[in-house]
Design goal:
Length: about 140
């Protein structure tokens, strides 16, 4: 694998803007484990090894179990995730897997479980990790880099 640019070094202002969004997302009322599920699941879909490594470790630090992390790719096939978590995972997958978009069913399910502010924050959290995944994948970031 060839060495690729480090956006943080080449375009520090752009990286600073991304960090500003990330820092804002850290102030939202989204529960830590909800954020972790979003970050790990989107990173799995996007194949971002760097983000999977970081965010699965963070999830464990926040109390996530190994078992749930192991079955996260097949979350629909288990009863280990709450109704809220299932709605978040469905939103994460559908926002991440564009161009299909978010189905009315998935959106309405989430809208019934979360108030508008929480739902807006969830959507932005999904968008944010997808942006980070694209940075990590396109620049071949690797864990412990």
């Amino acid at each position: 694998m060839s060495k690729r640019i480090r956006i943080k070094e080449v375009e520090p202002a752009i990286y600073k803007a991304m960090m500003a969004l990330e820092n804002y997302m850290a102030t939202t009322k989204i529960e830590k484990l909800h954020k972790d599920l979003i970050k790990v699941r989107a990173s799995q879909i996007n194949g971002c090894t760097y983000c999977m490594d970081i965010h699965s470790r963070e999830a464990r630090q926040h109390g996530e179990t190994e078992q749930r992390l192991y079955v996260l790719t097949n979350w629909r096939e288990t009863d280990l995730f709450s109704e809220e978590e299932q709605a978040i995972l469905a939103m994460t997958e559908e926002v991440t897997l564009l161009p299909q978009g978010v189905s009315d069913e998935t959106y309405e399910r989430a809208a019934k479980l979360f108030d508008e502010q929480y739902l807006a924050q969830l959507i932005m959290a999904i968008i944010t990790i997808n942006a980070w995944n694209r940075i990590g994948v396109s620049t071949h970031m690797i864990p412990n880099e």
